């Protein structure tokens, strides 16, 4: 059965207290777009490890989805983390990278020192005309961001950046790259993160600026955009492009600069990852629903066998549980709670769930699941990554346990 024959049903119903008519319409619009536009593109391009076309990004921009969390006064939709994750789950159901590209808007790369420029960039971000890449990690600094070694040295009214960055997704196609660099060494008594600041490297889409070279990292999944290791050799950044914080903050004014401003962005990123993981797992459940009724053995549909029915039931229950959890945590963030433990918990549980569910989906597909003829192998490859990026499962466990017990 060709991949395109699988029908994506209507989205799981929003229930009280999360249900509002605007949210229902937004969810239905996102799922229809995922079914009719994203899924055929994913089926064609993912096996080629190809990038999503700019026309697809433009269609999402026209719907306003790059500005979901940007205030309406700046041209955005003025909605919250809940709606942002709601759309992302539906898009990730078709292709994880499309559910992820929305994070490259939402005010990312707008926290400049110049107020007028910040407002201009917020409006561009809301329109999908200011889509970026964020470059935090390095070959020796991933989970331990305080170990970043890339240097930023002041030279008059510019900063000069030198170092190696890794896992910079969408870096070549982006309008800019946010780079975390060290401006000074920590002084005695300061945390190791002291002296780390984000810088905005502006560039033309499709190329790298002077002083930046990129090597494509050959991933096993998460196709749709390329991921790079970057070499920065004397990249000049004006002082006006030193940023007050990392990640988009929905247009809110940052009042804690540098490394300290990362935390809220990371919390949003973690619940966003949980929602994307739920989308991938939901896809696996729905594909299994179709396959168990289509595939016959011993003269009957394999969906008639109790062991397989029960396996599907467990999968569906785990997905529903994780969805309820990310919605609760997104609501907490929208209410202004820091929710650091909760975001770590939902990221941990939802992503580990996605790995289990997509692995079970491959098992239910038997030999057909181990081919590229079915989508379940894509779901499994992509789900596996969700336990790694935005903080590994081990890092989430450390965050949670450090808030439950004294630190050793």
UniProtKB/TrEMBL annotation:
Transmembrane segments: none
Cofactor(s) named in the record: FAD
Record InterPro entries: Acyl-CoA_DH_CS, Acyl-CoA_Oxase/DH_mid-dom, Acyl-CoA_Oxase/DH_mid-dom_sf, AcylCo_DH-like_C, AcylCo_DH/oxidase_C, AcylCoA_DH/ox_N, AcylCoA_DH/ox_N_sf, AcylCoA_DH/oxidase_NM_dom_sf
Domain Acyl-CoA oxidase/dehydrogenase middle residues, every copy: 134-235
Span of domain Acyl-CoA dehydrogenase/oxidase N-terminal: 24-113
Keywords: FAD, Flavoprotein, Oxidoreductase
Domain Acyl-CoA dehydrogenase/oxidase C-terminal, first and last residues per copy: 257-405
GO molecular function: acyl-CoA dehydrogenase activity; flavin adenine dinucleotide binding
Gene3D superfamilies per UniProt: Acyl-CoA dehydrogenase/oxidase, N-terminal domain, Butyryl-CoA Dehydrogenase, subunit A, domain 2, Butyryl-CoA Dehydrogenase, subunit A, domain 3
Coiled-coil zones: none
PANTHER family, alphabetized: ACYL-COA DEHYDROGENASE, ISOVALERYL-COA DEHYDROGENASE, MITOCHONDRIAL-RELATED
Protein family membership: Belongs to the acyl-CoA dehydrogenase family.
Name of the protein this chain belongs to: Acyl-CoA dehydrogenase
Source species: Hansschlegelia plantiphila
